[in-house]
Design goal:
The structure is a single chain. The protein has 165 residues and is mainly α. It has a domain of 88 residues. Helices cover 70% and strands 2% of the residues. Helix 6 packs antiparallel against helix 7. The two termini are 30 Å apart.
């Protein structure tokens, strides 16, 4: 896989900003700025149910997303942060899209078993299954992002070379 420090920096920045945003609503509530806190929660509302009973709490206020979503974003960001150290690992070169299902299955089972009454999921099970899914998504997305980034740079470089000719 080709490596682009600029492409990596963009992905890392977006990932860190998205994940940091999870903590803004409780921070703004804590600081007394309820309007900013509500806007922060509204930002994440389209992608998460935001059930307060199923959310981690900071300063007495729920994060902007639930246990599972928090774990997905935190583990995704952790893998992105560690990527320069682990990018040569075999998994980053061999994971095909169907392989991504391995990482999603625990999350689906946790949900389905809870709905069927087989067991009651918990903050721990939602968090763990979300962590597995987030890490798996990163294992799939980071190399794909790096390939897209370097392919884009090659096209731009090739266009500049043709213009000079």
């Amino acid at each position: 896989m080709r490596w682009s420090s600029r492409g990596y920096a963009v992905l890392l920045t977006v990932s860190l900003a998205w994940t940091a945003g999870l903590f803004l609503a409780p921070l703004f509530h804590h600081l007394g700025n309820d309007t900013a806190a509500i806007l922060g929660r509204v930002f994440y509302a389209p992608i998460c149910h935001q059930d307060e009973a199923r959310s981690f709490v900071l300063f007495g206020w729920p994060l902007s997303v639930c246990h599972r979503c928090s774990a997905i974003y935190l583990s995704f960001t952790a893998v992105v942060l560690l990527f320069p150290l682990i990018r040569r690992a075999r998994i980053f070169h061999s994971l095909a899209l169907p392989g991504l299902a391995i990482f999603i299955v625990p999350m689906i089972l946790d949900y389905v078993f809870d709905v069927l009454g087989v067991w009651n999921n918990s903050a721990l099970s939602r968090g763990m299954s979300g962590m597995i899914a987030g890490a798996g998504l990163a294992v799939f997305i980071v190399p794909a992002w790096m390939e897209l980034w370097t392919a884009k740079r090659r096209r731009i470089s090739h266009m500049h070379t043709e213009e000079k000719s």
